[in-house]
Amino acid sequence: MFNPADEDFLRPLRQDLPARVFKEITEDYLLEPRGKFRGQGVLLSPENTEQVAAIITAAAAHRVPVIPYGGGTGLVGGQVSEDLQQPIILSLERMNKIRATYPAENTMIAEAGAILADVQTAAAQQDRLFPLSLASQGSARIGGNLSSNAGGVNVLRYGNARDLTLGIEAVMPNGQIFNGLTRLRKDNTGYDLRHLLIGAEGTLGVITAATLKLFPRPSDRATALLVVPDPAAALALYALAGDILGQGISAFELLNETGLNFLSEKMPHVRQPFNVPPKWSVLVDVGLFRDNAASEGIEALFGAGQDAGLVIDGVVAQSDAQVEQIWNVRESIPAANRLVGAIASHDISLPLGAIAEFVASAPDKLAALGQFRINCFGHLGDGNLHYNVYPPKGANRDDYHSVAPKVTRLIHDLVADYGGSFSAEHGIGRLKVAELERYGDPVKLSAMRAIKAALDPKGIMNPGVMLRG
Fold it and tell me: In this structure, is residue 466 part of a structural domain?
């Protein structure tokens, strides 16, 4: 079906493009972070949109598959293929410029290869905030963030990557350039290709630049870690926080003692606020625009939560250093998880009203499959939980290979029963294609296949991602 990016294909491109576009490939581009996929390919790293268009035009003419590559931080195998013979791995790392910033408009135009942390810094230099925030922000790139519609800790207040984008520039599967870098907030002129390409995981084209939304920087910030009896109390506290703090809540994160114990076990240098990890706690982050309003508000939430029996104990950060310490705990949990080694990891979302019942019922159902440790944590305010299952302490996860698919099927079936999603923020990639086929609405899947066939009739764009080839 496809042809390899062999020397016969590359020779004409070498005549048209600078030699530095053709990079020696290394292991970093071939292995996804969890080690579940190892690919192969020819690495091309263009410097501008016209060079991307030249590469895609040639690939379309010769039916050579193209795998767009951002920061390589994706967790569902969208950036790596084991099945394709010598595809193009198209890295946009050299396209990393901030093309323009318009602080009065609260907009910025950034190229797809710009590292997320650098975009945040560029916004801060203009006294603005770009709120997308991920654990991998030091290496994740904007193009990948948009292609996967990344979430993170600030979705509650600011939305996903899709909500932070006004316009995009992209190269379509036939090599044509879509010039959609609008700075307009109202533009009802037909189908919105921006929203079609964002979240498409590189299957409908290559995003090369984006117009991003910026926001005023909150003048006052407060952070607290509050101990709660259970997830039901955490959800009631969230509702109370909305009454007291309104739209000022930036993050409302649920933490479980298992994750904190993993930190103590594997990363003891990470300082934790409590000597004995609480069974359940929530990290609340507030940003307001009046001096001391945030700290006053979070103290009011602490007191009201105690009065209502929703808060057992807590720590309110008294300095920037303490804010950093509390957030370091939350952001270090995924690294500790990896060091322990999960049997099965799940990126799920649920209606808020179903979360407490799901969390209470899932362990009993899992017990039918064996004895496990469960680390349930995540972005409670937007319903996104990371529900990860581990072997008992002292056991080897390699002994659980046969049970892992059963664990995932049980969790995903239960999530579906509650009207949730098996993929909240990580995407589909190659890892979850079968899950999409099992749980996806058939009409939606049919429409997706029709869109793919219309825009990419030769199927060269990231084959095997989202939809089977």
Answer: no
- What pLDDT, in 10s, does the model give residues 357-383? 999 999 999 999 999 999 999 999 999
Same domain, 315 and 237: yes
Residue 444 lies in a domain: no
Tokens of 176: 């044509």
* Whether pTM exceeds 0.85: yes
Sheet holding 206-213, edge to edge: 98-102, 107-111, 206-213, 165-171, 177-180
Residue 43 has pLDDT above 80, yes or no: yes
Supply 428's token pair: 């589909």
Q: Distance (Å, rounded) from C-alpha 200 to C-alpha 112?
A: 15
Residue type, 324: E
108's tokens: 């910025």
359 burial level (CB within 10 Å; 0-12, 13-18, 19+): buried
The DSSP string of 394-450 is: T--GGGGTTTHHHHHHHHHHHHHHTT-BSBSSS--TTTTHHHHHHHS-HHHHHHHHH
Q: Is the Cβ–Cβ distance between 22 and 72 less than 8 Å?
A: no
Residue 18 CA, chain-centre distance (Å), reads: 33
Please tell me whether residues 72 and 141 are part of one structural domain: no
Contact call for residues 372 and 392 (beta carbons, < 8 A): yes
- Asked if 205 and 173 touch (Cβ cutoff 8 Å), the reply is yes
What residues contact 60, with CB distance under 8 A and at least 6 apart? 173, 174, 175, 458, 460
The CATH number covering residue 250 comes to: 3.30.70.2190
DSSP string over 102-162: ETTTTEEEEETTSBHHHHHHHHHHTTEE-----TTTTT-BHHHHHHTT---TTHHHH--GG
Nearest residue to 22 via CA among 57, 46, 40: 46
Q: Are 39 and 120 in contact (CB under 8 A)?
A: no
